[in-house]
Amino acid sequence: MFSTVFQFHRFGVSLTGRDRSDSTSIHPFSHPSSYHTQMLWINIALWYVSSVICTTLTREIDFVSKLLLTTNQFFVATLCSFLACRCRPSILKKSQTTKMWLLATSFMIGMLSLNLAIGSMHVSLAMTIRATEPIFTLFLSPIFLSNYKFPTNHYALISLIPIVVGAGLSSLSSTDFTVIGLCMICISNLSFATRAIYYKDTKRESGLNSFEMFYYISRNASLMYASLCFLSYSFSSSASSKEMKDSILLVITNRSYLFMLLANGICFFAYLQLSVVVLSKVSAITHGVMNSMRRPVTIAVSAMWFNRSLSNPNKIGIFMACVGSMMYTLSKTKKSKILDGDNDGCEGSLKKKKRK
User: Fold this and answer.
1) What is the rounded radius of gyration, in angstroms, for the C-alpha atoms of the chain?
2) Which of 99, 176, 273, 345 could form an S-S bond across to 202 if both were Cys, CB 3.0 to 4.6 Å?
């Protein structure tokens, strides 16, 4: 999986994240006879697998705090992004420094709160409530964007109804629902919605490609996480400080724990960047459908992995939320050809440019 991420150029995307001029959009449901179509299917599968592994490991890793876990994800992602940029990322313009720190802060808060939510309640419930992110984006856009116009697309507005009803039904029928987990998901959605609003403009104005954008966001977030860990260790109680120190020593001395953290970080980087690769080879609508279907796949696999049975109201709520999310994505991509990222993070809003 890790080697495939660094071989994007073999099927149309260079290591620096720029599309090759001779590459053409491939429909994934065409006859799989060509090498490029086969590679596309492989990367779609790796995208799903890395997403499932990252989410499952995030839930299963309990030998370190979620703060240390999220810090590890961003440190590994920073290293992977640096290597993907061939160790020579473009220099960030000074005029974009503030926006890049804002993106890193929103991404940092979003991932930490999401990991805390996954740790406090089951993955299926957390992912279902995560589907409400479009609602946060819809109401935050007029606040942050002065020229924003409230959408007149009735299909986009109608699609929010099954998202809200499905998330509410799944939450009320779940035995492991917690108010703290719900608050963490709301903070996560708020943060990711803020990131999605600023990502597209920052990417265009900075002139950076997707790998370089992710490198700077991850690097800045890693610095903030390192500072947060230091402050947490310095000003927390002696028992908490000792617990953090013991968990770090445990990871260093236990190869299996170290491997789990490394795999979690690599999968965190891989599923976000593989999403960009798939988007470069298919239409925005096709990518939106695949991205929406990734959530029920993650829910189904996590339910089987943790041997958790879903009640009928849970299944209905998950289905409604996922269908509503798909409807919203389709309605938005058909109108503007812009895909709003999911994210567990964190693809961001990407614009699919047509080649003449």
Assistant:
1) 20
2) 99
